[in-house]
Amino acid sequence: MRLTGTSHSQARLAQACPPPPRRRVATCKASTPTGVSEPSSNTTPVVHDGRVPLLQTLEQFVRPKQYIEKVLSGHKWAWGRGGVPPKECLYMADPTAARTWLNSEDQLGIKTQYPYAFRTILGDTSIAMVQNPELHQRLRQIMLPYFTTDAIQRLVPDIQATVQKHLARWAAADKPVSAYKGAKKLTFDVMANHALQLGLSDAEVDEYSEVYKTMVDGFKPPAINLPFTAFGKGLKARQQLVQRAEAALSNPDIPPGGLLARFRDEWGPTSDTATNNIINLLFAGKL
Questions:
Q1: Which of 13, 50, 213, 223 is the most exposed place for a label (fewest CB within 10 A)?
Q2: What DSSP designation does 192 have?
Q3: Cis omega (within 30 of 0) on the bond before 85?
């Protein structure tokens, strides 16, 4: 777990565990609000100085696991650098403390959110990213009826037909088929055409499942928007999916009563909220 945040939350972190001078190990007492347990079973946690030279922070983008292990160096708490540009962060490998801090965000002045790449690609009004509690509640109210057991059971005959279509295509292939890639394309077809009723043709399923893969690859760091980075390519792919979603939302022949129609009726055919949540559901369906 890496803790960063607003100037207020950064100040709270610095007050609890001030960054040590270069190449020293600091010991600090973590101050917590009344009624909140200490962030660790050890009330005087050792905070290691895991800050590496600036050039070495590039390892976080190519070998993130190894970089975090280097910062922590076997400690539960460490000051390190993360993000673009690198900022000082408090790295935590203490499950008890992490649970305490995350359950006490308001009291501790901490804001929990996904990395910048996730928020940008999935959209800040998607149900997974939205910070507005009223909008989050409204999205849940609209979506949940379409994913109950009864609602899914009504889709089963159409899903079975789609599975048979893909199996027939695999059987007719003149070379070995990757089961993993085939299953991912099948899942995309089911989510796009049955859960969301986007009305994609077989050719569009082939095309947009690849576009979707490029978009998801954009989550990989660094989150720098350049044409040759995974993030830059992911944003371009996202825009392609947004345009196809808007076309589906603008179709006058949308099946009435479906989730796509609810999105259109609630927010309109070109709303960021509608398209962000179509993309979010495609992502959720293919996790």
A1: 213
A2: I
A3: yes
CA distance linking residue 234 with residue 119, whole number of Å: 12
Contacts of 170 (CB under 8 A, 6+ apart): 177, 182
Tell me how crowded residue 53 is: count the other CB atoms within 10 A of its CB.
7
Cα maximum dimension of the chain: 68
- Model pLDDT for residues 54-103, shown as the tens digit of each residue: 888 888 877 888 888 999 988 888 888 887 778 888 888 888 878 887 77
Over residues 147-201, the pLDDT tens digits come to 999 999 999 999 999 999 999 999 999 999 899 999 999 999 999 999 898 989 9
CB 90 within 8 A of CB 47: yes
Residues whose CB is less than 8 angstroms from the CB of residue 26 and which lie 6 or more positions away in sequence, other chains included = 17, 18, 19, 20, 46, 47, 49, 79
Query: How is residue 240 written in tokens?
Result: 């392609």
Strand partners, 3: 90
Cβ contact 87:81 at 8 Å: yes
CA atoms within 13 A on the CB side of 107: 14
